[in-house]
């Protein structure tokens, strides 16, 4: 059960990474739009998760529910 749980979590992580890379690779015209800063921070930390854990770095964050 533990093995299948780890496998599922890693598959989800891989899916998020691939989606983020595909999004980054798409060509877009520059434009100014409102963004969700909390979501950007969470996505960035998700991309760096493996390297952080590999170096025994734990990130604790307490994000405001609404950012301007």
3D shape = extended
Measured between the Cα atoms of the first and last residue, the distance is 43 Å
- Percent of residues in helices comes to 55-70%
**Count, helices:** 2
Mean pLDDT: 86
In total, the number of strands is 0
Order of helices and strands: HH
Beta-strand percent range: under 5%
Instruction: Work out the radius of gyration.
Output: 15 Å
| Largest sheet report | none
Flag low-confidence runs: none
What structural category do the secondary elements indicate? mainly alpha
The oligomerization state is single chain
What does this protein look like?
The chain has 68 residues and is mainly alpha-helical. Helix content is 62%, strand content 0%. The chain contains 2 helices and no strands. The chain has helices spanning 2-25, 37-54. The longest helix has 24 residues, at 2-25.
Summarize the structure.
With 68 residues, the chain is an all-alpha fold.
List keywords for this structure.
68 residues, mainly alpha, 2 helices, 0% strand
List the helices and strands and how they pair.
Elements (H helix, E strand, L loop, with lengths): L1 H24 L11 H18 L14
């Amino acid at each position: 059960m533990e093995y299948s749980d780890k496998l599922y979590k890693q598959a989800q992580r891989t899916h998020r990474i691939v989606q983020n890379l595909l999004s980054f690779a798409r060509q877009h015209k520059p434009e100014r739009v409102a963004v969700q800063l909390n979501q950007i921070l969470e996505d960035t930390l998700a991309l760096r998760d493996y390297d952080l854990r590999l170096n025994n770095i734990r990130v604790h964050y307490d994000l405001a529910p609404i950012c301007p």
